């Protein structure tokens, strides 16, 4: 039976109508994955020597054990954003003589083969090999690797249970921040507290049974949970939430654009996928801390320009790159209605504009790290407003992939295509190159000035640019309608 | 009102629609029947400029559909549930469509009041989003939304499918009333020969993309259609 399921999976991928594009994405993703794995393996191999050098008086395994709790939290967070939950179309099997337990085992088994379960191993195995060459006890090291594999699998199945729950994510992130904060300010050492726990997995080989038991338990919980879910109504029932009608009367002030603005706001607020984009965007305000708090970056101005563009433009790129695919499920209605395309686009533009201004205001506290930071962010915000908005809207007209708004938790890559990777180039890379050129030839003031002036020029030419973009959308209309009709597999 | 000339649509080597000429006068209630793959939805999509014709064109009230957008203010339609915005409540959806068609809230409310019977208490004030309504109720909302803004041309694709018997009877009444208004042209497609002969003054049969019958409805029409579809003339194109 498993073989048959696997072959169906295979067919659904290779017979999907947008195979070419998704194959392209898979290949690009594959390269990223291979790159990640190789760098993990290399750093795993080198870690022993590195730790020996930095902490000559401590055992490398002890150091790794110290940080392992963070690793687990980070992995949970990473999986929340990246890992696709394993789904299969169970409906056709419900009436066929296939045991529900087989379906459940298949779904769970497949998720064990996910690439995310390999990440840790690719780090740990080279590390363990180096340990063995340095005369560490074979049994202890091998069982330690097994224990870690079991922990990884537990994380995998916990992640399935979490099921992309926002609250759990918030809990994980706050634990991570809180723990690191306590460690950093020396209030309470989380590292020291958990180090013996994880070190025990190495020190006492018998302890391997604990993570293995945990992994099995998690599998079993998932299995019982899933088995009960293999019903039509169990899947369908939970979703219907009570609607709260709101007329958002204030949007009327924006005239013709108002009704679209209202629609967009409701779309963002009432659909999980768009809503989480907003949260993610807000979280990225803290992205700058990564760069501003570290001395290595203090002289790397282009890096700061990158952060500036990124922080003020995060909603621009997250939301903007999928315009108009957000409206894909009812796009043919929109196109047969009496819709001024221009107003439709302008409504999206004003939302993005508000987001850029808001993100800029939120980044003002970075002035703590010097006036440079404020100036760079300001220039970047202007550049985003004037140049990047038209650019991203223009690339939006190449969107042809449907986004299922109400199919929230599953398939976060939905709607993504090669265009999305391409669009990041002009949006992110170009301003940084411009900035770097002027920064290295002249100075910071000139570089920020150039970005700002470009932004202002773009803003001044707004009407003309949006006219062109509107024409482009009209031209691409038929392709979009046809593309949006195809249900993504 | 609507003039079709030399219209054809070809996908690859497959001609899905080929209409040399068809003229629908103002105020007519026009029924389109045909088997699967006969080209009904293709014709409606061409009327709404959702797809491009391979040859020929459609003129809707002196506006050529694929070159100008000026047909939109007086044309409205409900093709399928992709015309609905799932995350809105029915009321919000009606007001949104009203906005697009220059109707204020009061206008829309007045119109909705006429369709209380049709809604059967299952649409308004339900505190549910359109995506959570049943297929039949979604259809009701979509059909009524296409009446907003005094359209001169109303296009309904398979309006009777998925509706319960009571609603089907009420819908027939609504379409008849609409057709009685001299300036409203109604285009309806259906698989149900009985319904369509009841509400339409004229019935056109499509088969493999070609017009094979063009009948003014009379008491004999239903028989004639049944004979046609019962014979081998009408082949089902397996999609």
Automatic annotation (TrEMBL), chain A:
Which ranges does the record mark as transmembrane? 23-49, 61-81, 115-133, 139-161, 168-190, 202-221, 276-293, 305-326, 347-368, 374-395, 421-442, 448-470
Q: Which Pfam families match?
A: DUF5687 (PF18940)
Keyword Signal attributed: no
User: Which controlled-vocabulary keywords does the entry list?
Assistant: Membrane, Transmembrane, Transmembrane helix
Domain of life according to the entry: Bacteria
Protein name as it appears in the record: ABC-2 type transport system permease protein
UniProtKB/TrEMBL annotation, chain B:
Xref: Gene3D superfamilies: P-loop containing nucleotide triphosphate hydrolases (3.40.50.300)
Residues forming the ABC transporter domain are 2-233
What Pfam families does the record tag this protein with? Answer: ABC_tran
Q: What name does this protein carry?
A: ABC-2 type transport system ATP-binding protein
**Gene Ontology MF term list:** ATP binding; ATP hydrolysis activity
Membrane-traversing stretches: none
Q: Which organism is it from?
A: Maribacter caenipelagi
Q: Can the keyword Disulfide bond be found in this entry's annotation?
A: no
Q: Which InterPro entries match?
A: AAA+_ATPase, ABC_transporter-like_ATP-bd, ABC_transporter-like_CS, ABC_Transporter_VariousFunc, P-loop_NTPase
Going by the UniProt record, its keywords in alphabetical order are: ATP-binding, Nucleotide-binding, Transport
**Is the keyword Nucleotide-binding assigned to this protein?**
yes
